[in-house]
Specification:
5-stranded mixed β-sheet; mainly beta; 5-stranded antiparallel β-sheet
Amino acid sequence: MKKIIFIGITLIIIFIVIILVKQQNIKDSSQFLSAENVDKDLLKITKAVIYFSTTADQDFDNKGLSYSVFVKEDHSTQALAMNGLELGSIAVGKNQLLLEDKNTIRIVDGDIKQINMDTPQYTGERTGYLPSQDLFFSIYNSGFKESGYNSDVRYGNAEKINVDSIPYYILISGVTEKGINILTQDFETKTFNLREVTFDKELKINDITTLQGLSIDSTQALAPILTDEHYYYLILSTIISESKESVSIYRINKKTLEQEKFKFIEYNDVDLTATIPYNYKNSATIYQNKLFYANGLGEIYSFDLKTHAVSKAFKLKKASQSKIRHNEETYFKDGNLYVLRYSEDKNGYYYLETYSLDKGNLTDSFDINGLDEIINHSSSKKVYSYDLKVLQ
């Protein structure tokens, strides 16, 4: 009798476990997209896209992974699971997105077109879209080869993706309407060179100028290369000691190539790691004749392009002063600063804020539902955020 009861209880437990597993799988599957089940109106109902990936060292077993997470207008989330690509990012085109992983390019519009690449990449540098040519590109930090350092490039559209290489280490980059500006670092000559990459029938690299007065050992780039009609702007810092740093704006005249240096921010007796921007690629913009820069302390500084006046424009609400990061991201668009935030006081932990650059105030904030579950979906791998793009 006891044996019968024991067997019965065991069967009931097994049945309950099966039901719970099935329910969990249903819940999980509803949060994940595939090329076969993508909604043709996905981009129309998407507010923002966030890119997460494992680090390159987690791909030693060829099981690295990444997620492109679509944050819908109703604040729900769905993710497209892909292979890993540390520092990977997203490019926004005309009613299209480029999503990347180490050996695949995906173009998303009404469906998902997948283009497999022969050579895998492990570390991204920058993706972008050039509207004048209807062309996507993605640059990678590929590493040393027999001929020297290479930064491989994939470029094209849904019809064809071409592959080429930039024979330099890229410290920082920036996108214009017609091409890409890159600041390269030469390990032999110990110099920094500003160059332009364009795509006509093929990839071309044009030398612009060598930057003066910079030390290879103490110089860091903190923001993308920005441009207006007359100048290039670079935000570069000099590390003076473990707790002291001087941040400057380098301005280069496009015609004369004259170089000027303006004092921007001074850090004294602070943890410099905590001041590092949430994302170098998305930390600055030019808007209404001002350059805006967001640091890792949640402080947004402005530099007037005409008067050269510097001010602390505003600060994120309840910004962490710690060097510990929780996937926070920034993105400038159309006079707004969008910030992916984290708080243990939130039910879902993550939320998206919007700040006006004109007034410096918070104009919108909403909780993101289900993002934490996606981030922690894998029990064996840890993913980190590397990009945020706001579509509408």
